[in-house]
Design goal:
Keywords: Hydrolase. One of its GO terms (molecular function) is hydrolase activity. With about 280 residues, the protein is of the alpha/beta class. It has a single domain, classed as Rossmann fold (3-Layer(aba) Sandwich). Strands 1-2-4-3-5-6-9-10 form an 8-stranded mixed beta sheet, with helices on both faces. It has a two-stranded antiparallel sheet with strand order 7-8. Strand 9, helix 8 and strand 10 form a beta-alpha-beta unit.
Length: about 280
Amino acid sequence: MTITKHIILEEKHKKPIVTDVFYTNNNTPKPVIIFCHGYKGFKDWGAWDLMAEAFSSAGYFFIKFNFSHNGGTVEQPIDFPDLEAFGNNNYTKELDDLEAVIDWIYKSSEFENNLDKTNINLIGHSRGGGIVTIKAEEDQRITKVISLAGVSDYGSRGPLIGNIEEWKKDGVKYVENSRTKQHMPHYYQFYEDFKANEERLTIKRAVSNLKIPYLIIHGDADTSVAINEAHQLHKWSGKSNLEIIEGADHVFNTKHPWDANAVSPALKRVIELIDAFIKE
């Protein structure tokens, strides 16, 4: 297995996209999986490396990356040393970042013998589930899309709820990270960007218009994104597959850091379901 970590991609917002690839270097074109992390997430969180290795072993060209404004840096891609970048993140930038990764696959000659550009699949965890669904609906290069503990509506969660007038007046609101104890800023531009692009950023619209196979996976013990959001996504889509994993929490019974040398049984089941779905 070939693992190349911390590849630096440039994109239009002038922040690097730090990217990892996992694959078997045998000059055989492989289906591509691009994985998008969620809110307060990063590519090296918990068991994501082990998940990437499992997909690589199953015959995929697996890519995971940090969104350019997720709060990480090239020097420290884990956690959130750059809170200014975090505060200036928004959904549109994350969609732009994902597009930059897809474009890189198409333009890069370095891996062209090991990946199949006609078979690009997106996985998004939590908030990333909405990002991949919106992108899959608008980008014809995508073959299949997977929402992993994904959200169903951006407008009713996170920074967009609460006192908007106070947010506008102050210019910033803060959310505590329960693990790092940082007070993480959200600048008012987040709200302005959402309102300016609200139709595009409506997950219901994207799901309803999807023309490609769509897999929804959710744990029934998820306390971060309620399981009814998975049922809502499934209802909006005419042809989605819904898989509920019994006893699984929001991160499929893993945590950060993850010191075990194997994924949890719940995440193993996630990998099996996605593998079968892509190979259908």
